[in-house]
Design brief:
The protein is α/β, with parallel strands linked by helices. It has one domain: Rossmann fold, CATH 3.40.50. It has six helices and ten strands. It has helices spanning 35-42, 64-70, 93-101, 118-130, 148-163, 175-181; strands spanning 2-8, 15-19, 24-28, 49-54, 57-58, 71-74, 136-140, 167-171, 184-187, 196-199. The chain has a six-stranded mixed β-sheet with strand order 6-7-8-3-9-10, sandwiched between helices. A four-stranded antiparallel β-sheet has the order 2-1-4-5, with no helix packed on it. Strand 4 and strand 5 (57-58) form a beta hairpin. The longest helix has 16 residues, at 148-163. The radius of gyration is 17 Å and the shape is globular.
Length: 203
């Protein structure tokens, strides 16, 4: 379980909430309301006061890289530091399974990142987020560049992560996707409005 106690993210009220294993929490709010800032703070990528616990361990009890291996942030347009996708992965059967699940041709691993489509990079970014089995997934618009067929594959993969015992916090502009995936919602109603938790109609 992920527990947030009085997390203070710039532009937001102090937030407290929980996300259990096998649960997907959607974060909703208008553009600029702080959705990405919240995810980055939970991943310890940006400084924020307050407390974040994963299975009883507070983020400051672990070195930042160790925390981020457990609590994984995946942005809509992931950053790449090598010329090809292959250089970012170990060759494993799991990589093969993930690529197959997202209908990615193995030949794309050796194509220069700059030549991949935005949707291909986004799917590789999701694979990179899953490759080493984090406990918590923070997904920021994970299908924004995908067509309907690829979105359906990505959603099935996210559902499988939930069934496997992981927890997910999802930011998505797609209301139908939130209905399909989310068990609850955290609404950010403006720079200084209180955030509140409600159950999803699909839960």
């Amino acid at each position: 379980m992920l527990r947030i106690d009085y997390l203070s993210v710039p532009g937001l009220p102090a937030l407290s909430f929980e996300v259990a294993a096998r649960e997907c929490l959607a974060v909703e709010g208008p553009s600029g309301s702080g959705k990405t800032r919240l995810l980055r703070a939970i991943a310890d990528l940006d400084p924020a006061d307050g407390y974040i616990f994963l299975e009883g361990i507070e983020r400051r009890e672990l070195a930042a890289p160790a925390w981020r291996r457990r609590v994984r942030y995946a942005s809509a347009e992931p950053a790449w530091w090598e010329a090809t996708a292959r250089r970012h992965f170990r060759a494993t059967a799991k990589l093969d399974r993930l690529m197959s699940a997202l209908a990615l041709d193995p030949g794309l691993l050796d194509r220069p990142i700059a030549e991949l489509s935005t949707g291909e990079r986004q799917r590789f970014g999701l694979i990179r987020a899953l490759a080493d089995d984090p406990q918590m997934l923070l997904l920021d618009e994970p299908t924004s560049a995908l067509d309907a067929a690829s979105t359906a594959l990505a959603e099935e993969l996210i559902k499988f992560q939930l069934l496997a015992g992981r927890a997910v916090i999802l930011v998505s502009h797609d209301a139908a996707q939130i209905e399909r995936l989310a068990h609850g919602r955290l609404q950010l109603a403006g720079d200084h409005a209180a955030a509140h938790r409600q159950r999803s109609a699909a839960a």
